[in-house]
């Protein structure tokens, strides 16, 4: 793995703040919203993390991390429109919850990848992006997201009806 540049350290720190505040928000409130301080911290840190990801080109080209950053920015945009307007009508809260929760999934993919490829320093758990363990991790993250999103949507439905 290439050395981490100063922007990469800032990006990583913001990503850790985002992941921690996102998990705290979901556990405490069952959804990420602009109405809670932890939700605001999560969304701001997520925005910064996605924007800084677009400026990091350690491998020289646009890569999967950049694609996840773009998807994160799109999900933040859709979630914020859903949260602040009535464009999506009665589906607004559901769409906001799904969009904001999807950003947590998008954060988790590079966090797991970089963590397993960089840590412990000097003797990382994995040595290749092609390692099948990563595919299993991604599948687990997807399953956790789908289960969590289903539970979240059921909870919102009960709140609204």
Description:
This protein has one domain. With about 160 residues, it is mainly α.
Average pLDDT for all residues: 94
| Residue share in helix | over 70%
Tell me what portion of residues adopts beta-strand conformation.
under 5%
As for the number of domains, it is 1
The helix-and-strand class reads mainly alpha
In a few lines, what is going on in this structure?
The protein has 161 residues and is mainly α.
What are the key terms here?
single chain; 161 residues; mainly alpha; 5 helices; 0% strand
Note the topology.
Blueprint: H1 6-29, H2 37-54, H3 64-84, H4 92-118, H5 132-160
């Amino acid at each position: 793995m290439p050395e981490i540049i100063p922007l990469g350290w800032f990006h990583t720190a913001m990503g850790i703040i985002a992941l921690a505040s996102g998990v705290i928000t979901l556990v405490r409130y069952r959804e990420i919203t602009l109405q809670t301080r932890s939700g605001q911290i999560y969304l701001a840190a997520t925005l910064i993390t996605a924007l800084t990801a677009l400026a990091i080109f350690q491998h020289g080209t646009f890569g999967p991390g950049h694609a996840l950053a773009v998807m994160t920015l799109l999900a933040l945009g859709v979630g914020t429109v859903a949260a602040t307007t009535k464009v999506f009508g009665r589906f607004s809260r559901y769409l906001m919850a799904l969009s904001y929760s999807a950003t947590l999934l998008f954060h988790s993919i590079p966090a797991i990848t970089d963590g397993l490829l960089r840590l412990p320093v000097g003797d990382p758990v994995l040595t290749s992006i092609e390692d099948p363990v990563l595919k299993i991790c991604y599948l687990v993250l997807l399953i956790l997201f789908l289960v969590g999103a289903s539970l979240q949507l059921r909870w919102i439905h009960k709140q609204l009806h």
